[in-house]
């Protein structure tokens, strides 16, 4: 019989709205995992987005398991009656399980809120979180199916010319390459360019109430080698603010000295080395090498130096201080971490090496105390000046390194080689002889043995997401999540691949939206820490307490 009358074979596809049973089941489970608590309270929008992404990831995992099961069973499937009952059970159990998870999620978030001293949120928030999660999951599913459709079309095209197995492999390679170019070469570059334009404009502005300093001890003053209009937004804030001589005198009851503040902006010199050289010239001009304390400070991505830290040092030493920093970026730290991290390291090395070289030329008996300081990405920046912990202790007379990102060295190595039995959030290094970790000044005073010199203080809260965020969270459980939780970290936090990474990533955006002493807020701790590390004369516990109230904006009793 002739085959000319037979119809050609057709390929049928499942409608796009059809869902996989095992995919939905896994989606509900992973949705619940995504709602579990992390380091800090999550706002409803972030909570919903992470939950929606978790549901989408769970669905993808369930579909993969379903495909593997069909392959193992060689196409054998349950009968129609079993399938109907399975879908009926899931239609009831799925929404019930999701609702239970949403309510539990609010309870979990309220526990974290209580730990950090924030008020509870109402259970009605669960419905808002659920709505955001649903929209996020649908969008993620649509994107995933779009990518799958492109893959299938590409595979069918290549299947005409090469074996099926090779067509599948080539399709995967081509699709991954195209997505990589799209994300890295187009989306990220466009985002970076947009942020660059936005924040470069902001960097050129001057905050309300800020004017050029008249004191010759400040960069940007008429006598300065650094022009005011080259300092950038945060540089201008730094040199124009701070406690006055009158405020220092009133606080101490003794005649105070005008504090020295030296800053070199991005536009002040062509590169990091030139900015560092200019900073040293400014230090010499202002007489900084004759002061009691000289602090080399790493700046954050925008060039910011935390006022609570810098002001506290100047109060502690009654103005007999000099602080120097240089700018390497005007982008926020979360963007600088991606695009400017090398420049942050270069800036830290350049400025510290230049200052240290000039400082080392002074007679030993007339050198100021040389202190390294940095907060957040600024801590990473200044630590980059040191090859290892030994180099750090050899070249400074003290250091205050606050909220250091996980990739900071030598901190990362110190955590990995900490004394056995000590926790990662509060590691003990060489018995606490020189280098100590803690979230408060009281933590730094433990262990109780003598703290030698130089004193190196690493401040890190157990619930600071900047400190604990790492790409390794995607695939690996860190020690700090295996150990009993530190202060204000919930014992309900668990590690889940990918999800914990997303949770801690989001936590970074609210790291400073919690009360002082929690998350990425260390300001109220600085008076006591400067006291411990620099050992100021004529200074006692009452002075620390009074200064702490000033730093926190509280009235002095």
Describe the structure.
It is a single chain. This protein is an alpha/beta fold and 557 residues long. It has 2 domains: 21-199, no CATH class; 216-461 and 522-551, Rossmann fold (3-Layer(aba) Sandwich). The protein is 52% helix and 7% strand. The protein is built from 20 helices and 7 strands. The protein has helices at residues 21-34, 44-72, 80-116, 125-159, 164-203, 232-240, 245-252, 272-286, 307-316, 333-339, 341-360, 377-383, 389-395, 411-416, 441-444, 465-468, 479-482, 499-509, 526-534, 541-551; strands spanning 260-264, 293-298, 321-326, 369-375, 398-402, 435-438, 455-459. A 7-stranded parallel beta sheet has the order 1-3-2-4-5-7-6, with helices on both faces.
Structural class: alpha/beta
Mean pLDDT score, rounded? 92
Which runs of at least 5 residues are low in confidence (pLDDT < 50)?
1-12
**Percent of residues in beta strands?**
5-15%
Radius of gyration: 29 Å
CATH architecture label of the largest domain: 3-Layer(aba) Sandwich
- The topology string of helices and strands comes to HHHHHHHEHEHEHHEHHEHEHEHHHHH
Q: And the CATH topology of the largest domain?
A: Rossmann fold
Per the principal axes of the C-alpha atoms, what is the gross shape? elongated
What is the overall number of helices? 20
What is the terminal separation in angstroms? 107 Å
CATH class of the largest domain: Alpha Beta
Helix percentage range = 40-55%
Count of separate structural domains: 2
Order of adjacent strands in the largest pleated sheet: 1-3-2-4-5-7-6
Question: What profile does the largest beta sheet have?
Answer: 7 strands, parallel
Q: Would you report the number of β strands?
A: 7
């Amino acid at each position: 019989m002739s085959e000319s009358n037979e119809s050609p074979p057709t390929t049928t596809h499942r409608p796009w709205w059809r869902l996989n049973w095992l995919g939905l089941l896994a989606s509900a489970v992973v949705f619940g995992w995504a709602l579990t608590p992390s380091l800090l309270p999550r706002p409803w929008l972030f909570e919903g987005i992470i939950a929606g992404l978790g549901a989408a990831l769970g669905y993808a995992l369930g579909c993969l398991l379903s495909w593997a099961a069909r392959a193992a069973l060689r196409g054998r499937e349950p009968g129609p009656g079993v399938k109907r009952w399975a879908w009926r059970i899931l239609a009831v159990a799925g929404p019930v399980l999701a609702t239970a998870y949403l309510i539990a999620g609010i309870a979990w978030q309220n526990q974290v809120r209580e730990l950090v001293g924030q008020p509870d949120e109402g259970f009605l928030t669960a419905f808002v979180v659920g709505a955001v999660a649903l929209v996020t999951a649908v969008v993620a599913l649509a994107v995933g199916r779009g990518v799958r459709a492109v893959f299938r079309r590409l595979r069918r095209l290549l299947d005409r010319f090469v074996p099926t197995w090779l067509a599948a492999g080539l399709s995967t390679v081509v699709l991954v390459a195209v997505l990589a170019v799209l994300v890295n070469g187009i989306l990220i570059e466009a985002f970076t360019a947009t942020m660059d334009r936005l924040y470069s404009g902001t960097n050129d502005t001057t905050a309300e109430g800020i004017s050029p300093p008249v004191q010759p001890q400040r960069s940007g003053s008429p006598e300065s080698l650094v022009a005011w209009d080259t300092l950038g937004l945060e540089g201008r804030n730094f040199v124009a603010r701070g406690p006055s001589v009158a405020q220092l005198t009133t606080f101490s009851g003794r005649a105070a000295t005008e504090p020295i503040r030296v800053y070199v902006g991005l536009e002040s010199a062509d590169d990091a080395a030139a900015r560092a050289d200019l900073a040293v010239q400014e230090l010499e001009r202002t007489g900084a090498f004759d002061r009691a304390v000289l602090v080399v400070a790493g700046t954050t991505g925008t060039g910011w130096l935390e006022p609570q830290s810098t002001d506290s040092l100047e109060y502690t030493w009654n103005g007999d201080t000099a602080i120097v920093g240089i700018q390497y970026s005007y982008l926020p730290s979360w963007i600088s971490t991606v695009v400017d991290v090398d420049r942050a390291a270069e800036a830290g090395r350049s400025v510290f090496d230049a200052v240290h070289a000039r400082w080392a030329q002074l007679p030993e008996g007339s050198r100021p105390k040389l202190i390294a300081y940095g907060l957040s990405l600024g801590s990473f920046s200044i630590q980059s000046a040191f090859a290892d912990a030994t180099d750090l202790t050899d070249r400074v007379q003290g250091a205050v390194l606050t909220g250091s990102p996980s990739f900071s060295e030598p901190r990362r190595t110190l955590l990995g080689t900490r004394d056995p039995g000590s926790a990662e959030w509060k590691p003990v290094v060489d018995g606490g002889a020189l280098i100590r970790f803690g979230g408060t000044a009281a933590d730094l005073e433990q262990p109780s043995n003598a703290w030698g010199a130089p004193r190196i203080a690493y401040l890190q809260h157990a619930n600071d997401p900047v400190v604990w965020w790492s790409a390794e969270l995607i695939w690996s459980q860190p020690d700090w999540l295996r150990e009993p939780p530190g202060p204000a970290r919930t014992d309900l936090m668990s590690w889940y691949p990918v999800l914990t990474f997303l949770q801690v990533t989001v936590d970074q955006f609210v790291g400073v939206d919690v009360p002082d002493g929690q998350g990425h807020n260390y300001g109220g701790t600085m008076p006591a820490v400067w006291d411990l590390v620099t050992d100021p004369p004529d200074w006692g516990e009452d002075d620390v307490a009074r200064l702490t109230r000033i730093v926190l904006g509280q009235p002095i009793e």
